[in-house]
Design goal:
Blueprint: E1 7-12, H1 16-28, E2 32-37, E3 45-47, E4 52-53, E5 66-67, E6 76-79, H2 81-86, E7 94-96, E8 103-105, H3 107-117, H4 129-155, H5 163-183, H6 198-210, H7 217-222, H8 231-236, H9 238-248, H10 254-268
Parallel strand pairs: 1-2, 3-6
Antiparallel strand pairs: 1-7, 3-4, 5-6, 7-8
Helix pairs in contact: 1-3, 1-6, 4-5, 4-6, 5-9
The structure holds glutathione.
Glutathione binds next to loops.
């Protein structure tokens, strides 16, 4: 662990929600330290500012196990009192100020923290209060989509998931993609203003997460349901699709996105 990071993030890894912060950090020169392990391993970790495997924790210092809720249902998690004080919703990704005293939760807000820390170097959060607020508008709209997307992706783990979850996610995606497509009319390069902003970063991260639908094509086929992200979305929302492709290749995005997508397409093939 480096001692001098501007922000520490604890999460399961890899996690596209964290890229919001790491992409922003590359662009505005902020040092972000990422701590964590594979999703299945986090039940054997201490959820804390000093997060570590439980094997490295004194038996007397182990917190009371708590039932996981979202993405960790059916298991228990070891969250310290300090973790719960810093993170009242007890979720990951969980960011901390360098002294561990301030907890920042919700991946969009963790990304905002990075942009604010690096604002002197590059403005990713708008040039004035109006632009910053318009960026917030995109982040709020993205979270509305992300909520339905999360319910759908977690639901797909169960072959008997209720069909309405698919319908709702399809509708949420159509509303979100239409808004993004509209915002890029007629041939805008970025969602807000004339340069890359948090709105663009969030869009790419949420869509990459949604691409995990690919792992469940067999489940969808068995249920007679169509994948929501098929070739059709590229025709329906051409500007959003091109924007996505363009940003995937951007040097600040590629280090996170490329290995992840390569693995995703290889595994899903
Ligand atoms: N909207 C949140 C989603 C965070 C979230 O829901 N995290 C889940 C895992 S996907 C979690 O930490 N669950 C902890 C638990 O179930 O106790 C974000 O973007 O950060």
């Amino acid at each position: 662990m480096s001692a001098m990071a501007d922000l520490r993030i604890f999460s399961y890894l890899p996690n596209p929600r964290i890229w919001k912060a790491t992409i922003a950090a590359r662009l505005c020169g902020v040092e972000v330290e990422v701590v964590g392990a594979k999703p299945a391993e986090l039940k054997d970790w201490l959820w804390d500012f000093n997060a570590r495997p439980l094997t490295q924790v004194e038996p007397g210092a182990l917190p009371k196990p708590r039932a996981g809720r979202v993405g960790f249902k059916g298991g228990t998690l070891a969250k310290t009192h300090a973790f719960l004080a810093a993170h009242p919703f007890a979720t990951v990704p969980a960011a901390f100020s360098p002294d561990g005293n301030v907890g920042i939760f919700e991946s969009n807000s963790i990304m905002r923290a990075v942009a604010r820390l690096g604002a002197g170097r590059q403005k990713l959060y708008g040039n004035d209060p109006y632009e910053a607020s318009r960026i917030d508008s995109f982040l709020d709209a993205s979270l509305v989509f992300a909520r339905d997307s999360q319910i759908y992706l977690l639901g797909l783990r169960d072959a008997d998931f209720p069909t309405h979850i698919h319908a709702r996610a399809a509708e949420a995606f159509a509303v979100y993609a239409a808004g993004i497509d509209q915002a890029l009319q007629p041939d805008r390069a970025f969602l807000v203003g004339e340069t890359l902003s948090l709105a663009d970063i969030c869009f790419v991260a949420e869509l990459c997460l949604f691409l995990n639908e690919r792992h469940h094509r067999a489940t969808l086929a068995k249920r007679g349901l169509k994948p929501i992200l098929s070739e059709q979305w590229r025709e329906d929302f051409p500007r959003a699709s091109e924007h996505f492709n363009r940003l995937l290749a951007h040097p600040a995005f590629a280090p996170d996105v490329e290995p992840y997508l390569q693995k995703l397409y290889a595994r899903a093939a």
